[in-house]
Amino acid sequence: MTILLYDLVPTDTQRPFSPHCWKAKMALAHKGLDYRAVPTRFTDVPKVEGGVSKTVPVIRDGERVVADSFAIALYLEDAYPERPTLFGGDGGKAMARFIERWSQTQLHPFLGSAALMEIYRLQDEENGVYFRESREERYGKTLEAVGAERDTHLAAFRKKLVPLRSMLEYQPFIGGERPLFADYIVFGALQWVRVTSTYEFLQSGDPILPWFERCLDLHGGVGRATPAAA
User: Fold this and answer.
1) Considering 38, 56, 79, which residue would you say is the last residue of a domain?
2) Cα distances (Å, whole numbers) of residue 146 to 57, 109, 130, 137, 140
3) Residue 11, beta-bridge partner list
4) Counting C-beta atoms within 10 Å of the first and last residue's C-beta, which end of the chain has fewer, N or C?
5) Is residue 227 part of a domain?
6) Per-residue confidence in pLDDT tens, the chain, 230 aa
């Protein structure tokens, strides 16, 4: 049975952009599981599977409904143990949890604010109103004011990527010789900006870029199938 993935999209349903949905999508592809993405806009989320979650991703696998990207990865690992592992054991799960916290606290705040205005412009009128109201409440200032500050914070953001750059001197993926869910956590954050904005948050020649390109090509190029913003 095909798994359903509720996937956050703007007006253009071919441009899914949520970093968390990308984590789930890459996890499904890693496991080699058939799935169907269900395009879901911000204002659709409360209706997903009877309102099971305030956010997406949400998957339905037969009778099971699972929300939250990390919970989805854990579910897929347990439900399909015969397929390629997402974690490589309990240690990998613990490591991925650390990577998730690092990404959420060190990468997402800048990346989300850097692409904020572009994400807003991708929405239809109803979802644009929701996005503006919810994000301006979160940031305590207008979207325009948040977006105007991104160049000021860019250098500090790039410094936060030093651990990832250093690690990539030793191995091609965060997971080692092959990608694990930890890779998809960071990939989702960078893909978030790639598909919504032309903002150059990484410098040319940054060793993170070849890793990102490798991730885009994984699993038949599922990441690259969504084109970069132009």
Assistant:
1) 79
2) 26, 11, 17, 12, 9
3) none
4) C
5) no
6) 899 999 999 999 999 999 999 999 999 999 999 999 999 999 999 999 999 999 999 999 999 999 999 999 999 999 999 999 999 999 999 999 999 999 999 999 999 999 999 999 999 999 999 999 999 999 999 999 999 999 999 999 999 999 999 999 999 999 999 999 999 999 999 999 999 999 999 999 999 999 999 999 999 999 999 999 99
